[in-house]
Amino acid sequence: MSKIEWIRCSVWGNKTRLKIREDTELKNFPLFCPECKQETLINIQQLNMSVIKEPDAKTQSR
């Protein structure tokens, strides 16, 4: 039987609404946390989650 775990928010560590199995692979997955209302891009491989850092959008000044 494969191991199943909750995906946790990368900011606060709270459980999200998603579960993964140990054979699940996600690439560039937009994870939304219902508690902190933030979305982060993640990769998951063999129950190891890594957060993808993206540069913030800069506003254009006139």
Key structural traits:
elongated, three-stranded antiparallel sheet, 0% helix, two-stranded antiparallel sheet, 62 residues, mainly beta
Tally of separate helices: 0
N-to-C SSE series?
A: EEEEE
Q: How many whole angstroms does the radius of gyration measure?
A: 14 Å
Strand order in the sheet with the most strands? 3-4-5
Mean pLDDT: 87
Question: What is the beta-strand fraction?
Answer: over 45%
Number of strands: 5
Label the overall shape.
elongated
The largest sheet, given as strand count, sense and whether it forms a barrel, is: 3 strands, antiparallel
SS class: mainly beta
Distance between the termini: 59 Å
Low-confidence blocks of residues: none
Query: What is the helix content?
Result: under 10%
Q: Could you characterize the architecture of this molecule?
A:
This protein is mainly beta and 62 residues long. The chain is 0% helix and 50% strand. The protein is built from no helices and five strands. It has strands at 4-8, 15-21, 25-32, 39-45, 48-51. The strands form two sheets. It has a three-stranded antiparallel beta sheet, with no helix packed on it. Strand 1 (4-8) and strand 2 form a beta hairpin. It is elongated. The chain starts with a strand and ends in an 11-residue tail after the last strand.
Task: Record the SSE blueprint.
Layout: E1 4-8, E2 15-21, E3 25-32, E4 39-45, E5 48-51
Antiparallel strand pairs: 1-2, 3-4, 4-5
Question: What is the compact description of this entry?
Answer:
The protein is mainly β. It is built from no helices and 5 strands.
